[in-house]
Amino acid sequence: MRREIFTEEHDQFRDTARSYYLRECAPYAEQWERDGQVSRAAWTAAGKAGLVGWEFPEEYGGQGIRDFRYNAIMAEEMAATGSVGIGLGLQNDVIPPYLTRLTTPEQKARWLPGVTSGETICALALSEPAAGSDLKGIRTTARRDGDEWVIDGSKTFITNGILADLVVVACKTDPAAGHKGISLIVVERGAEGFERGRKLDKVGMKAQDTAELFFRGVRVPAENLIGEEGRGFYHMMGNLPTERLAIAVSALASAERAFEVTLEYAKDRTAFGRPIGQFQANRFALADIRARLSAARVYADGCTMALVRGELTADEAAAAKYWTTETCWEVIDRCLQLFGGYGYVNEYEIARIWRDSRVQRVFGGTSEIMQEIVGRSLGL
Q: Which residues are catalytic?
């Protein structure tokens, strides 16, 4: 179906994004998978192309544009070009609300220009070994000592953890207050006592560095607190709908790419004297996949426009994240099946898409947590 949510400006942005991915990312996919992280040069190239931080005010290098359709385009083109690893989704989908709505003018002047140029890579340190979906259970603490915060604790599953220059850390500044004692503090590269642990050896998304972070008496200036002290939990909850829709959009883009390469394979691969796509079972499977993706596309575009209008609720975002990631995983798994044994060989793109997509049902809140959120919204 023809998509009607984009304007001419969005189409121009899509051309820029596709050119960037084809030039700066796709050719290095295999190398980045081996290295376990991407090149910083790809980040600065994204900055030069205007593909980072467009939401930030113009005086700090941004464009002052808050429109999730641009975020969706970035996710779609990354998948469509076969690019991997570069955490621009985190940088553009998740980080901006923290650095625009919660920061002072002085903080913006310190941090935003480097982010928009691609020279400053960001990470969001929320999850801990004993606290994933349950953010109320974090144990990392920050105590005030004069004009400084002293941070102790650890984080895990941190996207961009190795490359990050600027880390937004969720800490308990008042442990006795429960979730009302959580605050957000920025830790910068080079801070004494701030250490990167091992780069996690994941099942998929191998080109995207994901790491453990350790804070051992890390001292940062008191002015590195963002938002209100003790309101960190609420700041995080306010940003989750955008993050969860971003995961849904990315999952759909991956599934559409999987369908594209599978359809091509089904036309070219022969068995018993004819293309495998001509066998009824396979033809019906591909027809079913197309129908599912078409329905998912209408759903995702509808949620995107609701977010653009400021109408997307937390439970709607949770439902979108749940249904889209579950449906797209089923689609991608079915696509791999159509490749037969070749689908399980890493040199085939479908194998990488399959590995990378499994985590989408986990991060940003598991499918079970999404169901819980939707269920509560029903008054149950």
A: 243
